Amino acid sequence: MTPADKPPPVDVGRRKRFDARRNQQTLLDAAAAVFVRAGVDAPVREIAAEAGVGMGTIYRHFPTRADLVVAVFRHQLDALADATTTTPAADETPYEALRSWVARFADFLVTKHGLAEALHSDQAGFERLHAEFVDRLLPVLDQLLKASAAAGRTRADIRAYDLMLAVGNLCIGAETFPDYQARRMIDLLLAGLAQDTPPPSGQ
Q1: What are the Cα distances from residue 4, in Å, to 8, 9, 12, 134?
Q2: Around 99, how many Cα atoms within 13 Å sit in the side-chain half-sphere?
């Protein structure tokens, strides 16, 4: 084999970093699934079983439960933000794109149990979650609202923060009343904001 035929050297450091990121992703996905079922106080052994690893592996990545909860919350927040585009899909109108995003946002609040509740926690590590939550998602919702308004499908005077707050408040009942249908309440809210009037010419 000539030098030209030899395979390029393997970057061991890069491979290790890739493996570490992949392992952490697996842990976060497993923890998120367990938190949805059992809340953020679920036993670490249940998370380890879900991920197919030992408990020591989890503690090496996340020394405290607060570290794990914050990491899962941000992981889910990333997924929500990354899954969202301000450009509608080919078969979506701007209003439909807005509705789809709000539905995902509502599911995030309703199904993530203690993750949403962690926004109001005073424990160390949780205090910046609310600001991060708003900073990451508010601009996305604002752009979706503006696109829908420009298409004449929603009123132009709707503030993104007001809508986010309204959706959040409508989701609160899901934790208290088993038969509470947050999605239906949110659908009614969005229907009330909709309009069929086309935008003025020149806009």
Answers
A1: 9, 12, 21, 54
A2: 19
| DSSP for residue 79 | H
The model's pLDDT over 109-167, given as tens digits with 9 standing for 90+, comes to: 866 767 766 666 666 556 677 788 889 999 999 999 999 999 999 999 999 999 999 99
For residues 115 and 168, the answer to whether their CB atoms sit within 8 Å is no
Please give the C-alpha separations between residue 113 and each of 33, 40, 68, 100, in angstroms, as whole numbers.
11, 8, 15, 21
Residues 55, 115 contacting (CB under 8 angstroms): no
Do residues 86 and 144 touch, judged by C-beta distance below 8 A? yes
Contacts of 203 by beta carbon, 8 Å cutoff, 6+ apart: 150
pTM: 0.69
Q: What is the full DSSP assignment across 85-148?
A: -SSPPTT--HHHHHHHHHHHHHHHHHHTTHHHHGGG--STTTTTHHHHHHHHHHHHHHHHHHHH
Cα separation, 18 vs 24, in Å, equals 10
Tell how far CA 182 is from the center of its chain. Answer: 17
Residue 126 tokens, joined: 């949780």
Instruction: Report CA Rg, the chain.
Output: 21
List, in order, residues 6 or more apart from 83 with CB less than 8 Å away.
104
From the CB of residue 43, how many other CB atoms can be counted at a distance below 10 Å? 11
CA 76, chain centre distance (Å): 4
